[in-house]
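Box 3.1 A note on notation
Throughout this textbook, protein chains are presented in two layers. The first layer is the amino acid sequence; the second is a token string describing backbone geometry. Keep the layers aligned when reading.
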Amino acid sequence: MDGTTFQMHWQQTISTVGILALVTALAVPLSSWAETNSAAQGQEATQPSTQELATLQAQARVDSIFSDSSDAMVEGQRCLPARRIRGVNVLDNRTLVFDLGRDENYLVRLKRQCFGLRKNTPISYEVHGSQFCKHDGFRALETWSIGEFVPGPRCSIPSFIPVTDLEKGLVRARVKADQEAKVAERKAERAARRAAKEAAKAVSVPDQQGNDRQDGENA
């Protein structure tokens, strides 16, 4: 091998080694970047969005409001300015929402059922001075005839809980779900009673027939 051929071969070897070293050097940071990027994407996928987080927080607050446990601490407001009350939305016999306009709503969750109070029932309430306050009373208005309303028993306001539009929607959904669960429970109880009666009949009929046959044989 002459000097020229050896030099060309050596230069090609150096070039090949240099390219391999460069590829190897780039492969390490690229691999690290890929792993870091994949981990970051996985973390973003597992973390809830801002809207999802707000919904979870609102749901937790609504669950606390609807909890009958004495440990449920939900801060409420003592009084509402009576002149600002635009309307009252009765959701069920324990749940009312007072609308003050401008997306300002206050939830009232009674400790027990208020007799005569049903969904969309009109109410009358006590106003002392210019405010409607905690422990003040209200009454469901029973419709006896067109334009004639008869007030029911007095019920007391425990507090006014400020709720956002998101929380108000969750409250409506919770009330609806509770009502559907009660209906399903009553249907299941009726079905169980019918099944028990049918089972009792199926047992008593053969016994009665057997008694009849035995009486005939003794005769």
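The CA atoms of residues 68 and 206 lie 50 Å apart. The helical segments are 3-46, 50-66, 165-218.
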